[in-house]
Amino acid sequence: MVFLALTRRGLESYEALGQDPGPLWLAAGVLSDDELAALRLRHRSVTDFNYAIEPSEAEVVAGAVETIKEHHPGDAVWVEA
């Protein structure tokens, strides 16, 4: 399963799953560059979008999910909601 976290709360939910639950994608601005680098040291696969994604922007969230599916075909995508 691939995870899309749109906020810090979504990131916290992901991290609560334990050691390396699967690839993580983040909306831009969820973490600073330093925080993102530290997260990459702890997890196998972290990708950050270069644009902000608000949970209320259904079309933007859907577009992000499509991008994730292009990179992880056949995997389920968990989306923070």
Question: What are the defining features of this structure?
Answer:
3 helices, single chain, 4-stranded parallel beta sheet, 81 residues
Shape: globular
Taking pLDDT < 50 over at least 5 consecutive residues as the criterion, the unreliable ranges are: none
Number of helices: 3
In round numbers, the mean pLDDT is 93
Order of helices and strands: EHEHEHE
Report the span from N to C terminus: 16 Å
Note the beta-strand portion: 15-25%
Kindly describe this structure.
The structure is a single chain. With 81 residues, the protein is α/β, with parallel strands linked by helices. Helices cover 41% and strands 16% of the residues. The protein has helices spanning 8-16, 33-42, 58-71; strands at residues 2-5, 24-26, 46-48, 77-79. The chain has a four-stranded parallel sheet, with helices on both faces. Helix 2 links the parallel strand 2 (24-26) and strand 3 (46-48). The chain starts with a strand and ends with a strand.
